[in-house]
Design goal:
The structure holds two protein chains of two kinds. Chain A is α+β, with helices and mostly antiparallel strands. In chain A, about 60% of the residues lie in helices and about 10% in strands. Chain A has helices at about 15-25, 45-65, 80-110, 120-125, 145-150, 190-240, 260-270, 295, 300-305, 315-330, 335-350, 355-375, 395-400, 405-415, 425-435, 435-440, 445-450, 465-495, 505-525, 535-550, 555-580, 585-605, 615-650; strands at about 5-15, 30, 130-140, 150-160, 160-170, 180, 240-245, 250-255, 275, 285, 380, 380-385, 390, 420, 660. Chain A is flat, with a radius of gyration of 40 Å. The two termini of chain B are about 30 Å apart. The chains are: A alpha+beta, B mainly alpha.
């Protein structure tokens, strides 16, 4: 349901404007009509930039000071701007120091083999006419003759390379096959000392950050709050239209009808003139959703797509039960559903109150999964349908009491004591004894009577659906949602334009229902078409008439027929496609059950490994099912969502585009 | 005559095993390609926004499920006992069909899903808040691999 709102137009003298804004802000329920947007060029552009800087700093703080918790509330807060500047300066300091170290590193690598030496010695030698040159080559290539021919001094050896110095007279040129290296500008010790110095700078800066982080974090948060508050106020203030050379300000706002009284009391005390108006077509009206406790849990899902437009039907309470059912269908395992429910209770105690609705929603999903898991006969991947079938004395008594003919029961009695593994083998076995027709006539009762290996299942196992029936069920659920959507479309159109416009949709609904009920009934032998031929034919005629003759009350007959043909093509192919789309429910459900089954089988096989088999068993089970739950949950949420937003919304004629209700108020 | 008998028995067996091989190898290749695309995109995004590595990792891992489906399909067929000396042509052809379907669909589904995830990761690296949106979009290619897997299971139950 969408809450009713009214529009108020306020007219004040410019000197009273800020007091009006203050009172509105205190009231906190008026959604101000947005006429213009703020941008970076407006006077508060600086504030907007500052907001970004604050937010960036808050984002970067935890990386450098991971230990601060959000509960720290230091008594002494500093000015947000000071905190920001100090933090940024230290960040720059750290950045510079890191950069320096990066530059020093390659130099250090080059200087390392040469150790420490005094450059002055080299210059003195140069003055005396001796040159010092540095060479490097691999150990194998080093020729000992060099040491005889020249003054060679081995400096160091590392990783198979030799580093040596050669001193020679200026005039002679040494002729050796080794790589010459430039004499390093600085010795390794100097470089290391500088690196050390930079590292110290980083350490100091980091420790200052760690120390001041709690205070800074709180101050920065305060800065964000203050700036946002200023921005919001300015934004609201900008929405007024100015008249009479800036003497009169006119502001428009929306208010829920329930809060109107409070506003009127406020206006009574102020120097403001105002008048009320009803929402008009074409206006952008804020949408406030109001639903039952159950449907409210699904509102976040509605908002993921689009809020309904003010005048149309809020579909949240209508898709909610379907969504829940579809989630259960897709997850398709009773054990996983149980985990959702139990985990929900545990998690609810440990987290913030604001997460409670989401967790409750998850628990509802768990309930649906539990139910649908039982319907499809899957519990943690264990196939509950094929849980052994045996005819016992009790079975015979049950069949007798249930009214199955005596000769059939006595035939089935022959199979007493034989244990069948699966429902299929049991059915085949019984069919061999009593024949196809006989079995199909009493199928449910016979299945119900058979004893299972797990006695607990006896009472409802016969209700569990096998794959083929699940396939049909998914399509049936789809058809139900589509038809329900079309009915809602009738309501929607009636609400917005009038019932006459919805007649063609009514025609489609009648047509689809008639065909499915009669043809489906014929297939299941529930309906005798021959007797009801008159009813059947007249319903179809009425439906076709509605579709072709009443689709558009205002246009002439030829255009109506043309449009109807075009619509028919669209709707027939559309509905077919939509219906088939619901097969995904079956596919997802069955795949998660099978994956669970596969993990069970693999872990069971591992059990036979000597000594540690049980450990592998537990590990594979835990990891396998966790993985399966994770993947299945994601798919079970996304696909029902797609079915809702595409198939259901389309058939319900949802247009969306509503704007969110954002009242002008003080941020807490 | 003996040769003919051997051939009649071999053809369904060969078909069946080729089917199993296709199931595993094509879906495995698909997943490998998909998750690698995610990994590459992650390393690029880490340069710009290293704080949300966890999100990148989760998205990269999404295409991994198709390989799992291929393996599960193999497992289901293998443990049903259908593959034996007495395998019929019908059964061999059925398993081949299942393998072809599941393998090819998983191959393309996983590699394309990897592309979607990689785009999402790259976008997140540039600062756009699209983690949830990417997760949702990545689930759509996976649906077809799931359908192929369900088909494999149904084929297996009917032979």
């Amino acid at each position: 349901m969408i809450t009713e709102v009214k529009k108020y137009t306020f007219i004040v003298h410019h000197s009273d404007y800020s007091s009006l804004l203050d009172s509105l802000r205190d009231l906190g329920v008026v959604h101000i009509v947005e006429k213009r947007k703020l941008d970076e060029n407006s006077p508060v552009g600086d504030d907007m930039k500052a907001l970004n800087k604050y937010r960036e700093a808050i984002r970067k703080l935890p990386a450098l000071a991971p230990d601060i918790s959000s509960e720290d509330k230091p008594a002494d807060l500093s000015d947000p701007r000071d905190a920001l500047n100090e933090f940024r300066e230290l960040l720059i300091e750290i950045e510079n120091a890191r950069h320096q170290i990066e530059i020093l590193n390659p130099e250090a690598v080059k200087a390392l083999p040469w150790g420490d030496f005094d450059k002055k010695t080299i210059s003195k030698l140069k003055e005396a006419g001796w040159r010092v040159r540095l060479y490097t080559c691999s150990e194998k290539k080093f020729d000992p003759k060099w040491e005889e021919s020249y003054h060679v001094e081995l400096i160091s050896k590392s990783k198979g390379r030799l580093y040596f110095a050669l001193v020679h007279k200026d005039e002679t040129e040494p002729d050796i096959k080794a790589d010459e290296v430039d004499i390093p500008e600085r010795t390794i010790s100097t470089i290391n000392a500088q690196k050390e110095e930079n590292e110290n700078r980083i350490r100091e800066a980091e420790s200052v950050i760690k120390q001041k982080a709690p205070v800074w974090k709180a101050s920065l948060n305060k800065g964000v709050e203050e700036t946002m508050s200023r921005l919001e106020y300015f934004e609201a203030a900008e929405q007024a239209d100015k008249y009479a050379e800036g003497n009169l300000y006119v502001l428009e706002g929306w208010i829920p009808v329930s809060e109107e009284q409070r506003l009127q009391i406020l206006l009574g005390k102020s120097d403001c003139y105002s008048f009320v108006s009803e929402p008009e077509p074409g206006e952008k009206i804020p949408v406030i959703l109001k639903n039952s406790r159950f449907a409210t849990l699904f509102e976040p899902i509605t908002k993921l797509f689009s809020l309904p437009e003010y005048r149309e039907l809020d579909l949240t309470p209508f898709f909610a039960p379907f969504f829940m059912l579809f989630f259960g269908f897709c997850l398709g395992d009773a054990g996983y559903g149980l985990i959702f429910i139990l985990a929900g209770f545990i998690v609810k105690r440990k987290v913030d109150k604001k997460y409670k609705p989401v967790i409750t929603l998850a628990q509802y999903f768990g309930v649906a999964a539990l139910i649908m898991g039982l319907v499809s006969g899957s519990f943690f991947g264990i196939n509950l349908i094929d849980s052994g079938y045996t005819i016992t004395e009790q079975s015979v008594r049950y069949m007798n009491n249930a009214g199955i003919p005596d000769n059939t029961v006595s035939m089935i009695d022959q199979a007493k004591g034989i244990h069948f593994e699966s429902r299929k083998s049991f059915s085949d076995g019984i069919i061999q004894i009593v024949g196809d027709d006989n079995f199909n006539k009493h199928k449910r009762l016979i299945l119900r009577s058979a004893e299972s290996d797990i006695p607990f299942l006896n009472t409802f196992r016969h209700l569990m659906l096998d794959s083929l029936n699940l396939f049909y069920l998914s399509m049936i659920l789809g058809a139900l949602q589509i038809i329900f959507g079309m009915i809602l479309k009738v309501v929607n159109i009636s609400k917005q334009k009038g019932f006459r416009y919805s007649l063609s949709t009514v025609g489609w609904i009648v047509l689809i229902l008639t065909i499915s009920v009669f043809q489906g009934g014929k297939m299941l032998d529930l309906v005798n078409i021959e007797n009801l031929r008159l009813l059947y034919t007249s319903l179809i005629v009425i439906a076709v008439g509605l579709i072709f003759l009443f689709n558009n009350p205002n246009k002439n007959i030829f255009i109506k027929l043309g449009l109807a043909l075009w619509d028919s093509y669209g709707i027939i192919t559309g509905v077919f496609g939509d219906l088939l789309s619901y097969i995904r429910l079956f596919a997802l459900g069955i795949s998660s059950s099978i994956l669970g089954f596969v993990f069970n089988e693999i872990s069971a096989q591992l059990l036979s490994v000597k000594y540690v088999g049980w450990l592998f068993f537990i590990i594979v089970l835990l990891i396998g099912h966790s993985l399966n739950i994770a993947i299945a949950t994601l798919g079970s949420f996304v696909h029902p969502m797609r079915l809702t937003f595409v198939e259901f919304y389309k058939n319900a004629g949802f247009s969306g585009g509503g704007i969110e209700y954002k009242p002008f108020k003080i941020k807490k | 005559m003996e040769t003919a008998n051997v051939l009649t028995n071999s053809v369904p067996l060969i078909l069946a095993y080729v089917g199993l091989a296709l199931m595993i190898l094509l879906s495995g290749i698909g997943s490998a390609i998909g998750v690698s695309m995610g990994g590459n995109a992650t390393l690029g995004a880490m340069k710009k926004n290293p704080d949300i590595f966890g999100n990148y990792m989760l998205l990269s891992a999404l295409p991994g499920t198709q390989g799992l489906y291929g393996f599960a399909g193999f497992f289901v067929v293998n443990s049903s006992g259908v593959i034996s000396d007495q395998i019929t042509m019908l059964q061999g052809a059925a398993i081949f069909a299942a393998g072809l379907a599941l393998g090819l669909v998983s191959l393309i589904s996983a590699s394309q899903q990897g592309r979607v995830c990689a785009s999402g990761i790259a976008s997140m690296g540039q600062g756009n808040n699209v983690f949830a949106n990417t997760m949702i979009l990545a689930v759509f290619p996976e649906l077809y691999a799931i359908i192929a897997f369900a088909a494999t299971f149904l084929i297996n139950s009917s032979i």
